[in-house]
Specification:
By secondary structure, the protein is mostly helical. It has 8 helices and 3 strands, in the order H-E-H-H-H-H-E-E-H-H-H.
């Protein structure tokens, strides 16, 4: 049983696997788009989103100059950088993460990447995917509404009186098509031709 053993092994030793995913996350942050197999893309996405979250949490502090930060804010930035460096060993990728990518995702709470399946790899037919960062023009998820604010979550509903008036008007106007009277059907039906009376012989 694999209790409390998250992640995939990919038939690699631990050191090799960690180096592989560190390089994949660094390539994703540097190029903002990488092409790899489905299994690697899913695991890379998990690590990349966690790393971006560390940088996003201190995004408001990064907007300040270093000499304007309080000691507590400086400590938060240092801690976030160290946590990101545990996954990404590339200094250039970490610099881009905190300077460029984190401010871009300040208003987005999770879901910074997406996976697009692109078919099979020639040779061994391994399923391939495109892992990329969400572009700036993508729709952002709305923040959750407060529990007390029911009208904002469900939308403005008409009052009970207006609702009953609308029902009454609908009934009076007859929104449903009325059934045709049987007399109208009889008129529309084809009438048999009248028989001609034979002329009287002279």
């Amino acid at each position: 049983m694999r209790h409390r053993r998250a992640g995939v092994h990919l038939s690699r030793p631990t050191a090799h696997r960690k180096a592989l995913f560190s390089n994949l996350v660094a390539a994703l942050l540097t190029n903002e788009r990488i092409q790899t197999t489905d299994a690697k893309a899913k695991e890379t996405r998990r690590l990349a989103e966690r790393t971006i979250t560390w940088a996003r949490r201190v995004g408001d502090i990064l907007g300040k100059k270093a000499d304007r930060r309080t000691p507590d804010e400086s400590a938060r930035v240092v801690h976030a950088v160290r946590m990101a460096r545990r996954v990404v060993r590339d200094r250039g990728a970490v610099t881009k993460l905190f300077d460029d990518i984190a401010p871009r995702f300040l208003d987005r709470r999770g879901g910074y990447t997406r996976i697009v399946k692109i078919g099979q790899r020639p040779g061994d037919a391994a399923p391939m995917s495109l892992l990329e960062l969400i572009p700036d023009d993508a729709p952002k998820s709305a923040p959750p509404a407060a529990k007390g604010d029911k009208s904002a979550a469900k939308g403005d509903k008409p009052a009970k009186g207006a609702k009953s008036e609308g029902k009454a008007e609908g009934k009076s106007e007859g929104t449903k098509p009325a059934k045709k009277a049987p007399a109208a059907k009889a008129e529309g039906a084809a009438k048999p031709a009248a028989k001609k009376k034979p002329k009287a012989e002279e």
